[in-house]
Amino acid sequence: MSATPLDILGINAYDHDVSAALLCDGEIVCAINKERLTRVKHDTGFYTDPVAYCLLAAGITLDDVTWIVRNSYLLNVRDLEELFLSYAGSQLMTPLDREQAMRSVLFRTDDPRVVDISHHLAHGYSAFACSPYDEGAVMVVDGVGSHREDVTEPIPDHCDTVPYARESESYYTFQGKSLETVRKAWLAPTKSLVNDDFFMMGGLGALYSRVSSYIFGHWNRCGEVMGLAPFGRLTMEPLATLEGDDLRLRAWGDDLDRPYEGVSDGDWQHSPDRPHWEDLARRVQEDTEQVLLARARRLHDATGATSLTIAGGVALNCVANGKIVEQTPFERVYIQPAAGDDGIAIGCALYGWLELAGRERAWTMRHPYLGITYPQERIDAATDRAAVKLTAHRRQSQDVTPQVADLLAAGKVIGWFQGGSEFGPRALGNRSILADPRTAAMRDHVNAKVKHRQGFRPFAPAVLAEHVHEWFVGAHDSPFMLLATDVRPEKRAAIAGVTHVDGTARVQTVHKETNPRFHALITAFAERTGVPILMNTSFNDRGEPVVETPGNAIDTFLATDLDALCLHDVLLEKRAMHRTLRPFLRRLKGVRQGMSRNALRQAAARAVLRHDA
Description:
The protein has helices at 34-38, 48-58, 77-86, 95-103, 119-128, 204-216, 222-228, 265-269, 274-303, 318-327, 344-356, 376-383, 386-391, 401-409, 440-450, 468-471, 516-529, 550-559, 577-607, and strands at residues 7-12, 19-24, 27-33, 67-71, 114-116, 135-141, 166-175, 178-187, 240-243, 246-249, 307-311, 332-334, 392-396, 414-417, 431-435, 460-464, 483-486, 504-510, 533-538, 564-567, 570-574. Strands 13-21-20-14-15-19-16-18-17 form a 9-stranded mixed sheet, with helices on both faces. It contains 19 helices and 21 strands. It has 3 domains: 7-118 and 347-365 and 600-607, ATPase, nucleotide binding domain (Nucleotidyltransferase, domain 5), CATH 3.30.420; 131-335, 2-Layer Sandwich (Nucleotidyltransferase, domain 5); 376-575, DHBP synthase, CATH 3.90.870. 35% of the residues lie in helices and 19% in strands. Mean pLDDT is 92; it is low at 605-613. It starts with 6 loop residues before the first strand and ends in a 6-residue tail after the last helix. By secondary structure, it is an alpha/beta fold.
């Protein structure tokens, strides 16, 4: 540790997942996505909200920060802000974002504390610098990264390119805090409808996003493509292959002329084109797995490393990750929970600590619980609302774990809100919806009545780490729900609610050391049922970010078919009146979210970043 504590702020700016992370004396102490605060999924734009959250959580101001490290994959941040100065029509900047930016000391700043780094370099630091390994290799694969002319790390001559090509894949080695580029693959500038139509480009992540747009009407529903893939057949010609080190994509041909054009789940679920979409999902998933396996083996051969760390949006593909663990020579694989672009903020902060401050590695990311722990007063205020009193019964005790385990064993679906929120897209036991994993009927119920999403989508098993090998084949430690593996054939019927159609599951191993409360709940459930596993999914309704505050949790509880809600040691169970009032409560939720969003942004603007502060 340093003799004088240093505070370093990392920012993922203007991205589809704006985020901030605060590092204090070598350790990330707080990190948050903007979407959790504004309640806008994958929120973009200016970064006042997450920065204010981190500073207020640590009890410091911007003046206390030693370094501020930023990245945006779109353009170098300073170039992007010059553009925004005169361009008010960008989808990335709402009027409120623009107002905040124009008042901020960080917008178009010449502050010497502010340093901008390139996209894959930030991903690389987010992968290795918080891993438990002293040396190894890094694999970064995503949709699109920085332009070559904005890349801030040295590039080997053998893989250099033209100034306006963009990063697609980057491979590194690391030793201690030193990172060295082995190879990069680039997205060549392409002819497309608009210059940011990245999924027309010739990269693996870009291809997967193009398939997501084709099947679901949005480029950022890649997780749904992965979940759909096991329902399809390998009837199509490969979309992506490797020729030596070069990725080749076949032409988007006449066989791919049935994009989803509906507007509702019903349109999609009952479309005659659904088998075609299932086959395409299977094809792109198979191609992605084969390319990544080949890339990982080649990286091992080139470096001789025994440990691998992975980042970038493609690193969220838990099925491919599981195969990398099982089918490549790497002995150890680490993927931190915010492997996508939200994790850029962590990478930026760690770069500031290691490179700008010149310090040594001091922190391993063993858990994702980097949000604020809300005090009891906030929980009491949220549960004191008239709508809650009218529709739910409240009880509080020293430890509600036994009562919650009883409810789960009896088939109830529970909202579970504990401690600080998880950083990254996965709910890992602090902002979770939990249910009994033993029946497929429970999976269907939670999909239809609680999450309001397509019936094919699977749920994850949260399993006590000490029992994982009893239930899953070749199971490795998977604390961040980023590895898929086979459920043991003799166990599949016993946990049908979390076994996917192909017999796999996206496992979360739960450790007493990192989440004792969640571990205790699963233990209590196992004592009642003999199954040391709970069905775990994110605490949100469809199309919404994961809940952050007690108020968010209450709103979602009232607007869905959740049976009960546990806020620390406060347990709410619904009264019969709730069913009558639920349509009104769903409408009220939207009104409350809009009011909360405006209040939060006004408070954030007052708290930090003003020119006149």
